């Protein structure tokens, strides 16, 4: 991983908005499936009674119900992608279905890749074993799920790799290079091995985290009784935040797990920049605990009272503020399900130009950070201490700066990978509802762009 290379700001052009590599209908199918299953879980006691089923009359809010929600959502999106949108025939899959090889012609390549795959999983398992945080709290559920899945994964990987290598145009991908190095075969390339390592480091790290956070929000939504607090804007707002975060987590988890070529959802490349990894990892456990979490060095919620308390007694303003925060959270969730089955951090998996990405290049970061500022209100503290006000405001600004840093490193990665993203970048500079305005403000303050300077990421 290297530093971000110098880049010249993209020139002003009159390009049309490039077509998105992801259809908006994929995420919509996932959303409908997820909502349908949540409704079933909430209505399960009535279903049990109506059909006299030999099961407890309780809502299905447990952790394995949350896991099933994710699996059903993923299967629905994958089925739509293949059966309706025929993504398996996209040239970007690297597959030629019309000229399958005989298994005997590709068995040597496949066996090398299987060795690489199993060795990679062993390394990820060793990382899980060494990481103490994986064996406490919410991560215990993820370890249980992954532990139960590993044997089926090993068994199913054999027919999957044998089948896929028959139709891949170039079967010697980065997995083959890693396997060739392990087995002492000639022809492996160190660059391809780094590509393999980055892709699987991303999947291993983030998949465990995403699985671990599936149960809490799902349980809260399934068990909620909105009738108890319909007149309370704060509690209604909190419930809607939870529901929208469930959408984000459920569909986001699907994205990490379904990185498959036949779905055209494979990882083309992981972010090669060390700065990109540092910026991203600071925002997730276990690293976040020492920085942004309770007692962390950039914790920004000391003696804050929050929007609900500040607006107590101002009912109309509280409803307006709750609506604004729900809108921001909805944009954040929209930015995730717009990816369909291709969501993940630190990866290039195609270019997305529709949904909220038509208005800003980084809708999730923009919405999330605006939400934090508007919900935390770091400049209002219960202690009356000016020092708390200054510290909270400063450190929330640092957090927003980290997300700005993440955005820039992601742009540097994508600008170097795909001409379509460069066209999208240029179009957004001129026409993006939010991006173009920020770009104009930037140009006013920087009338003479310096060589090697990136335009600001919003």
Main sheet properties? 2 strands, antiparallel
Strand order of the largest sheet: 1-2
Question: Mean pLDDT, as a whole number?
Answer: 93
Q: How would you classify the helix and strand content by structural class?
A: mainly alpha
SSE string, helix = H, strand = E? HHHHHHHHHEHHHHEHHHH
What portion of the residues fall into strands of 2 or more residues? under 5%
Number of strands: 2
N-end to C-end Cα span: 24 Å
Low-confidence regions: 5-13, 449-458
Rounded to the nearest angstrom, the radius of gyration is 24 Å
Number of helices: 17
- Give the fraction of residues assigned to helices: 55-70%
Which geometry do the CA atoms define? globular
Structure description:
By secondary structure, this protein is an all-alpha fold. The chain has a domain at 100-166 and 172-212. It has helices spanning 24-42, 44-51, 63-83, 103-130, 139-165, 174-183, 190-212, 214-223, 233-257, 274-281, 287-291, 306-310, 315-337, 363-376, 386-417, 419-431, 435-445; strands spanning 269-270, 347-348. The longest helix has 32 residues, at 386-417.
């Amino acid at each position: 991983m290297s530093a971000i290379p110098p880049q010249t700001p993209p020139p002003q052009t009159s390009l049309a908005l490039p077509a998105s590599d992801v259809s908006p209908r994929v995420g919509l199918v996932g959303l409908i499936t997820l909502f349908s299953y949540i409704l079933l879980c909430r209505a399960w006691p009535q279903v049990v009674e109506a059909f006299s089923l030999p099961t407890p009359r309780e809502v299905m809010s447990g952790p394995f119900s949350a896991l099933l929600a994710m699996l059903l959502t993923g299967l629905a999106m994958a089925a739509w992608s293949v059966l309706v949108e025929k993504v398996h025939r996209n040239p970007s899959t690297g597959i030629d279905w019309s000229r399958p090889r005989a298994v005997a012609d590709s068995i040597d390549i496949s066996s090398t890749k299987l060795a690489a795959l199993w060795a990679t999983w062993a390394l990820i398992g060793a990382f899980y074993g060494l990481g103490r945080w994986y064996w406490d709290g919410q991560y215990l559920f993820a370890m249980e799920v992954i532990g139960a899945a590993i044997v089926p994964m090993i068994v199913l990987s054999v027919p999957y790799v044998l089948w896929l290598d028959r139709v891949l145009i170039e079967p010697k991908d980065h997995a083959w290079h890693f396997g060739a190095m392990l087995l002492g075969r000639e022809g492996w390339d160190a660059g391809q091995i780094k590509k393999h390592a980055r892709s699987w480091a991303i999947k291993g790290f983030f998949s465990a985290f995403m699985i671990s956070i599936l149960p809490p929000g799902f349980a809260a939504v399934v068990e909620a009784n909105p009738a108890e607090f319909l007149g309370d804007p704060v509690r209604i707002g909190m419930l809607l935040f939870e529901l929208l975060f469930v959408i984000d987590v459920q569909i986001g988890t699907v994205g990490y797990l379904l990185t498959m070529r036949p779905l055209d959802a494979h990882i083309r490349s992981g972010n090669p920049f060390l700065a990109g990894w540092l910026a991203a990892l600071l925002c997730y456990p276990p690293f976040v605990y020492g920085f942004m979490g309770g007692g962390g060095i950039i914790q920004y919620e000391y003696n804050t009272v929050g929007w609900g308390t500040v607006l107590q007694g101002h009912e109309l303003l509280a409803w307006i503020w709750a609506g604004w925060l729900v809108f921001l959270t909805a944009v954040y969730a929209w930015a995730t399900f717009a990816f369909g089955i291709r969501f993940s951090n630190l990866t290039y998996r195609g270019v997305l130009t529709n949904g909220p990405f038509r208005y800003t290049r980084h809708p999730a970061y923009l919405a999330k950070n605006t939400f934090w500022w508007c919900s935390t209100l770091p400049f209002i503290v219960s202690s009356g201490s000016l020092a708390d006000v200054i510290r909270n405001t400063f450190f929330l600004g640092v957090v927003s700066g980290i997300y700005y840093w993440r955005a820039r490193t992601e742009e540097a990665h994508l600008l170097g990978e795909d001409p379509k993203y460069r066209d999208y970048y240029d179009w957004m500079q001129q026409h993006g509802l939010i991006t173009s305005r920020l770009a104009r403000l930037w140009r006013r303050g920087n009338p003479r762009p310096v060589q090697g300077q990136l335009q600001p990421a919003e």
